[in-house]
Structure formats: C-alpha cells, structure tokens
Amino acid sequence: MADQLLVSDDLMAYVRRVSLREDAVLRELRETTAELPGGLKYLVMPEEGQLLALLAALSGTRRIVEVGTFTGYAALCMARALPPDGTLITCDITARWSSIAVEHWKRADVADRIDFRTGDGRAVLADLLAELGPGSVDMAFIDADKAGYRDYYEGVLRLLRPGGLAVIDNTLLFGRVADPTAQDADTAAVHELNESLRDDDRVDIAVLPMADGVTLARKR
Fold first, then answer.
1. Which of 5, 88, 125, 214 could form a disulfide with 155 if both were Cys (CB 3.0 to 4.6 A apart)?
2. What is the DSSP letter of 112?
3. What are phi and psi of 180, to 5 degrees?
4. How far apart are CA 48 and CA 198, in angstroms?
C-alpha cells in the first residue's frame, strides 16, 4: 500500500506545471503577499486556493463565510467559483491588509461578490447567525488565529446548511500537533479541535495532509 509521498522541490514544480491555473491577478497577489512581514506564513498555497474553488463549484455553493481574510487570496479563489449572484462574507480582526485585497478583487471583477467585515470572528459569526439564520451558508473556510478555532468551528457549523462544508486550514500546524513536547497555546488549540472532530457525529470528516493540513468537515 502506498504511503504519503514526500514532496521535493522538483516534484512540487512538476505539480504546479501540470495542474496550477493561477492567472496574473492571483500570481501578483501571491507575490505581493509574500513580500509582507509574515506573508509566506499566512498565505495559503496556490494549490489550496485552487482546491477551495473546486470544492465551492462542486457543491453548488452560493454563499460562503470565511474567517481570516489577510490579503484576500483565498477569498479571491472562492469568489471566482461563485455564480454572479453569489456572496462571500469574509472577516478579519484588522483592516490592515484590506486595501491589497480589495484592489485585487476589483481587478478580478469579483469585488461585488465579496462582503468584507472587520471584527472578532466570534462576534461576526454571531452577527451573521442573527442576520441570516441557521442553515443559511453553503461553505465556510477557517484560517485565522488558532486559539479561536474551536469557537469559529462551532460558529460556522450553526450557519452551515445540512450538506454544507467547513474547510479548516493549518490543522497539522507545521507537524507540531504530533509532537508531545509542543505545549504552546496554538498547538494545544488545534490539537483539541482535531481530537473533537474525530468524535463529532454532526459531521463527516477527512484530514488532507497537504500544505499545513486541511480538514474537510461536511455537516450531516
């Protein structure tokens, strides 16, 4: 039985050559983000962005909620997969990088599909529950501060319709979740979420060992 393949630089270059469909706007946004302090740490891999778009298209998504915007790369990928009347609601604790995001959303002609909100993710999700009601969202993407992951997951689960999909980023956290000596708050929070998802009968799950770990949770 084949096990997980170790991805060398050459193999990654091959994967990108044969599969990545990153156009000029996405590429420029990724390159701009990489030059920011901590940019490479917080930027999703382009393959993950493409996966998010594919998941949105496969599930016929019309409304997406994202917790953690940063420079808007993932939001741009997902917004492009929406129908013209679809909506992506994305939030971040700060508007520091929103000008970069909005500029590229406009260049990609999807700014009218994206509703950017500033504030704590818990509060934004609570506001959306009151505004839209439970079961009103088709897909959610969580990629924000790890200490809040459990709360963000519970918040988006209330918003998701039955059959809706939650995608959670960084669930392997640079491999630290498997290191018993890693006791920092971020690792503990992600480890706690992973353990709880394993036994959560409200969802069907799969953990993808790609990028920094991507968990898919489909609401039953």
1. 125
2. G
3. -65, -15
4. 22
